[in-house]
Design goal:
The chain contains twelve helices and 35 strands. The protein is an alpha+beta fold and 653 residues long. The chain starts with 14 loop residues before the first strand and ends with a strand.
Length: 653
């Protein structure tokens, strides 16, 4: 029997500060109690699990907890210390906690007389790995020792310490306690700053902080005020999830999401980098270089494959292979990054790895028509064929641009795949038909409809502002758009990962009914490009409404319950938030409205905005095309105008 997965503790109400490799997880009460996921983490290890503040012998009464930015949270509480002051509190306690391992505790007096207050901070840690914390197997708290102006803990896993400024009046190692006697004049403030240190050094600077970030600081304005907050939060979350390749620190990529997946997930890192191309090509280049170093280059059937783990595919299909998805995304991302302005030198540097991916694709197909499942006897998946078709067309375009062989062979196979797919994967029914999710080895079709079909609409960017053709014909595309716009798939909050009328539908199933932001954004972009703006606008408005309910920090998924008047989207307790694909999807959703189709090698950019202008006027500034700032404005009539662009970049027709 397969081993039952460990239940993850719920994280949907947690306040998660992220500046990888740093992480701070708190409840809305502000106190770190050592229970649950509470704590400061670095590289997946909990350096501090308990940080409890008492003022005049009392815990502050929690009033408010609010995320200030992706890496910072602010807590406000009060304490009543004057015996004759009535019910009104007279000391405000403000705590600002950062993912970089700092916490600032500020006391502000509202009393009419000077106060002398004892302040205590109780500290503790287990130095446990996040996986052990999540599974409930973390060990007991370690014994502390007094160290410099704070406390220190040691184990075989390493060391951590907390230093305080100003230094405490007293430090009790046996109780893990730091004490101060603080004098507060009427209306005065005093602060204490705690800093968590690892192995005798500070936690260091996060990748996404400051000028080192590979992502442009894009901004959005418009009639719909939600767009500004959404884009700003998405860019912040993406910067918070940036990681460096340890062996090549100049190359950055995105972690999959916090708190559960703070490392590289190849397929998701590539998909997120592709959706964020409007913010520049540096992230795409770093991601591609990092993964090219992992590619199989030895002899055998895996030559050219980019390794990746298996992934659950929902209740109707066996687990899928993210290695296949990553290998197909690699040449597609490189081809599109070149159109957005990736320098020729970097493109040529990465071209051999892309060629190996395309050679793997043709070898895997062999004499057949479809890209088979990597596991013998597995079904031929609709979503995989969509990725393969796009990789072949964009890869052929890339090979031709550099005079490399293989382009005609890839185009011929893609044409054969398209013709066969329209016949073999279409399920006829009284409602007009639908694409099958997969085809069994015996030819039997698995007819359930899910959000994976959105990838059939994701065609890819070619030169001169054109898009590669999709796998479906015009009539089939129209039918899929109708299905995506119907109540079975459109929950009112976004696209369900499995239709509500399908067998085994579960609104919380991460591939069985929950709304996954990535597939919804892909659907919106594909529907808009195909001319089905009504259906695209409905999905877009649903995600915007959900984003507002989540304070614009989109989780990777949430429940696919039908939206009703006055309702709010239900969070998924195990969803990562922030998540790379969700934050990148926010960028794709908004830039889709402007329809930016660059061709940097040709020095042109074409605008194909959504003509219905579903959000009214929209302005996007601080994007990057051809390595330079790019700004565009879409008016209420659906007409677009470039306001800033690289010198020499011409508006295409």
């Amino acid at each position: 029997m397969p081993r039952r997965a460990v239940d993850l503790p719920p994280a949907h109400t947690a306040l998660i500060c992220v500046a990888l490799p740093g992480l701070a997880i708190s409840t809305d009460q502000g106190q770190l109690t050592g229970r649950g996921l509470d704590g400061f983490y670095r590289g997946g290890r909990r350096l501090l699990s308990r940080c409890q503040v008492r003022v005049a012998g009392r815990e502050p009464l929690a009033l408010q907890a609010r995320m200030v930015s992706a890496d910072r949270v602010r807590f406000v509480g009060t304490v009543r210390v004057s015996p004759d002051g009535g019910p009104d509190p007279d000391v405000v306690v403000e705590r600002t906690r950062c993912a970089d391992g700092t916490e600032r505790i500020t006391l502000r007096s509202a009393a009419l007389r000077p106060l002398r207050l004892p302040v205590e901070v109780a500290l503790g840690t287990d130095l446990a790995e996040l996986a052990a914390v999540a599974s409930g197997t973390a060990g007991p708290e370690l014994s502390a020792s007094v160290h410099a102006s704070g406390l220190r803990w040691s184990s075989a896993a390493g060391h951590s310490a907390v230093t305080a400024d100003p230094p405490p009046t007293d430090a009790l190692a046996s109780a893990g306690l730091l004490r101060w006697e603080i004098e507060l004049p009427p209306g005065g403030t005093r602060s204490v700053e705690l800093r968590v240190r690892q192995n005798g050094a500070g936690l260091g600077r996060a990748v996404g902080r400051g000028a080192v970030s590979p992502l442009a600081q894009a901004r959005a304005t418009g009639d719909d005020t939600r767009v500004q907050a959404l884009l700003e939060t998405c860019v912040e979350d993406l910067q918070a999830l940036l990681l460096r390749d340890p062996g090549h620190p100049s190359d950055t990529h995105l972690a999959a999401g916090a708190p559960w997946r703070c490392g590289m997930a190849p397929a998701e890192a590539l998909a997120a980098a592709r959706m964020t191309l409007p913010l520049g090509t540096r992230l795409a280049a770093g991601t591609l270089r990092t993964l090219a170093r992992t590619q199989f280059t030895g002899p055998g059937g895996q030559f050219g494959l980019i390794p990746g783990p298996r992934r659950d595919a929902g209740p109707h299909l066996p687990p899928g292979c993210t290695a296949t998805e990553a290998t197909l995304l690699f040449p597609a991302l490189l081809a599109e990054a070149r159109r957005w302005g990736l320098p020729e030198q970097e493109t040529e540097e990465l071209l051999p790895a892309a060629e190996r991916c395309l050679r793997w694709l043709l070898a895997a197909v062999g004499d057949g028509t479809y890209l088979p499942d990597p596991h013998p006897g597995g079904p031929v998946r609709c979503e995989t064929q969509a990725h393969a078709h796009r990789a072949a067309l964009l890869g052929a375009d890339l090979l031709d641009a550099y005079g490399r062989p293989g382009g005609p062979e890839l185009r011929q196979w893609a044409q054969e795949l398209r013709g066969a797919f329209q016949e073999d994967f279409w399920v006829e029914d009284l409602g007009g038909g639908r694409p099958a999710a997969a085809r069994a080895p015996d030819g039997r079709l698995l007819p359930h409809l899910g959000a994976g079909a959105a990838h059939l609409l994701d065609t890819g960017l070619l030169g001169a502002g054109s898009l590669a053709p999709g796998l479906l014909d015009k009539v089939q595309t129209e039918q899929l758009a109708r299905l995506f716009g119907g109540p079975g798939m459109d929950s009112g909050w976004g696209l369900r990962s499995l239709g509500a009328k399908e067998a085994a539908y579960n609104p919380f199933g991460h591939r069985g009914g929950a709304v996954r932001i990535q597939e919804t954004a892909v659907a919106v972009a594909g529907l808009s490009a195909s001319g089905f703006e009504k259906e695209a606008a409905s999905l877009l408005r649903g995600v915007l409404a959900a984003a507002e309910a989540f304070d614009h920090r989109l989780p990777e998924m949430y429940a696919g319950e039908q939206r009703t008047e006055g309702s709010a989207p239900l969070p998924h307790p195990a969803a990562c938030r922030p998540a790379a694909t969700a934050a990148a999807a926010g960028v794709l959703l908004l830039t889709t409205l402007a329809g930016i189709r660059p061709d940097a090698p040709a020095g042109t950019v074409t605008l194909r905005p959504v003509g219905s202008a579903p959000l009214g006027e929209l302005g996007l500034t601080g994007l990057r095309v051809a390595g330079a700032p790019f700004s565009v404005r879409v008016g209420r009539l659906g007409l677009a105008m470039v306001e800033e662009a690289a010198d020499g970049l011409q508006l295409g027709v």
